[in-house]
Amino acid sequence: MAATDPLASMDDGTRAALDVPSDLLAIDPEAMRRLGYSIVDRVVEHMASIGDQRAISEEEPARLRALIGGPAPVTPSPIADDLGLLADVVLRNQQHGDHPRYFARVPGPSSYPAVLGEWLATGMQSVASSWGGGSGPTAVEIIACEWLRDAIGLAPTCEAVLLSGGSMANITGAITARHLRGEGVIYLTDQTHASINRGLLAMGQPAEAIRSLPPDEHYRLSASTLRAAMAEDRSRGLRPLMVVATAGTTNTGAVDDLPSIADICDEYGAWLHVDGAYGGPAALCERGRAVMPGLERADSFVVDPHKWLFQPYDIACLFVREPGALERTFAMYPEYLADVTGSEVDLHNRSLELTRRGRGIKLWLTLRAYGLDTIGRAIDRGIGLAEYAQLVIEADPNLEIVTPAQLGIITFAARGRTDRDHSLAAARLTADGYAAVTSTVLSGRTVLRLCIINPATTTADLDGTIERLSAYLA
Ligand SMILES: Cc1ncc(COP(=O)(O)O)c(C=O)c1O
């Protein structure tokens, strides 16, 4: 039979689309190596000299536009030049959460093994959506999360999924609780991370079914206030659905009384969600574990490895104690995925993400590269550095402690100074570039706050930071 040429039957436009080289986007392997090695050099240089750089930099919007904007590129530009522009302009103008004197908000001290894992995973287009489509990245995610679960001391039945950050992980836990248990009242405090209230409203939780309870004098969720609020709701015919407790609040590092809260949850049949996005990794060292009893009683728990587990952004981990709960909440079975779904764990059925990269790869490599002992010691160093900062502040007659060092966070203030003085002092030091610090508000008072979780931070870094702040407030 005579073969017909399919190309001959195509219209001109379609034929023209095919009439380009199949290696249109390919780059010569030697050039690829050269460009890649230049990036390795850049990153190693960044990591080796970060302490000599500014902790945070910001550029004028117009200047940034002038440097990196212009009309959309139609023709090619040299990649090496643009990589330089990205490194020198784009990536320089940001907060450097990996800087040893970055104490603002929550730092993000990264680590080289994690960066290597991320690079490799990106370079090989990792995908951890279904077992059939990504058994390796799926397995690595599950294993890394199991290691973390056991090291933190969560219930052994916990299953996990990695998400982009604490905001998404917490809300994925809340959606799971409400899907499995039905509607009801959710309890938190004004120290609960703001993203949770936002997420609850976004998932359709009525504002009148969210109780923001006043915390106790240590900024913790008070067990007696919680019990009274639940009793009152029940007496009004309302159903307590979920309590959001925190293991390491963003403001002060406070840990809620989890055993008492878990008892109350048992009594009322409520789901206990624990936000350990910030503080959870502290359970990897003895001193941290000692202040967080009861983690194993959480129905769901969140920890963000991109905060205190030395990972590049982004990675957060949600654990849910009841096996299969995540799948019961999020599973979907479209026809076109049938070939890759259903044999083992399909991580796209554990959250709202379908296409998802292998976030577990960098975490797995980090845990292997250092081992849990070293990681625990690096975390313990942060706890110790905050305690050192407390001693330095206590020795300064100009300053007073507002909340003591807790899980790497300390808050303090200058005697007799106004709220504005404190915000200005934080802004001045940050603008100076020596360190980045933030103020926060506790019981209506603006105070200074240091979050000290970078193991590369030295006591001299803390001396220099506190000395400068004290001088601004003298
Ligand atoms: C305790 C706590 N929960 C949740 C979040 C939100 O995490 P993310 O910024 O990764 O979404 C944060 C962020 O700082 C946090 O400290």
How would you characterize the overall build of this protein?
With 474 residues, this protein is α/β, with parallel strands linked by helices. It has a domain at 127-356: Aspartate Aminotransferase, domain 2. The protein contains 16 helices and 11 strands. The protein has helices at residues 12-18, 29-49, 61-68, 79-90, 112-123, 131-152, 166-181, 194-202, 223-235, 258-268, 286-290, 305-308, 325-330, 360-394, 419-432, 459-472; strands at residues 159-163, 185-189, 210-213, 240-246, 271-275, 300-303, 316-320, 399-406, 409-414, 438-442, 445-451. The strands form 2 sheets. The protein has a 7-stranded mixed β-sheet, sandwiched between helices. The protein is globular. Bound molecules: pyridoxal-5'-phosphate. Residues 106, 165-167, 170, 193, 195, 246, 250, 275, 277-278, 304, 316 line the site of pyridoxal-5'-phosphate (PLP).
